[in-house]
Amino acid sequence: MDPRPQTATPRIRSDIAHNARVWNYWLGGKDNYPVDRAVGDRVTGMYPSIGEVARADRAFLGRAVRHLAGDAGVDQFLDIGTGLPTGNNTHEIAQHTAPHARIVYVDNDPIVLAHARALLTSSLEGATEYIDADAHRPEQILRAARPTLDLGRPVAVMMLGILNFVLDTDEARSIVRTLMAAVPSGSHLVLTHPTLELGGEGNEAAMRFWNENATPPITARSREEFASFLDGLELLDPGIVSCSRWRTNPREPEVAQFGVVARKP
């Protein structure tokens, strides 16, 4: 029996802005609607550095995956909250370094599902799979990932810009604990998350506007709250920093988005 969730694909809403499409717009993509561009422009007007945040988050993904697939020797990736395909997706970066790497993408956005075929390309030695599942249901994700990933071997669990859509911090911690409890020593957790503690004039007002005009709702968190997701894990240098400064020039301008990579001992 196929353990992957079998659900009907919801109708794609083109009348309300959605995070995956607006993010795609900020990254210069074309998979978005007029409503997404309108909201994206309004947010940019209030928070001019949001485009820099989007690009810094994407660049952080590349650096983290290259390190994990290279120096850390991790060859399995569980990428939760995949978003729309762009250049340098997780499997492309990982398999460039480790052609045998296996990647499972997870998202429950119907427009991402519609584009999932672009993610299901792989090196001959490796594998990619896409799961239509909700980040709020980590047990479901783990069940569906098992046909592709060997959860008895180290896995990189990636949640970039995802826990900010889990508004209850206790629930967000529980999601992380469940995922990391299911993978062995040597596994890694890769996170990014918006914050109001690293500047970004207009950030708070832009978030309020987003929550009133787009979906899903979002929240920022403090460094202390963000650090609570990492209990029991070993932080890789340089620890919790602006994602734009993780293993780059320390003089790189900060963006209001934490980034961290941590290892399960």
TrEMBL record:
The entry's keywords: Methyltransferase, Transferase
Pfam families for this protein: Methyltransf_19
Gene3D superfamilies registered for this protein in UniProt: Vaccinia Virus protein VP39
SUPFAM superfamilies: S-adenosyl-L-methionine-dependent methyltransferases
GO MF entries: methyltransferase activity
GO BP term, example: methylation
Name under which the protein is recorded: SAM-dependent methyltransferase
Species in which this protein is naturally found: Streptomyces parvus
Lineage: Bacteria, Bacillati, Actinomycetota, Actinomycetes, Kitasatosporales
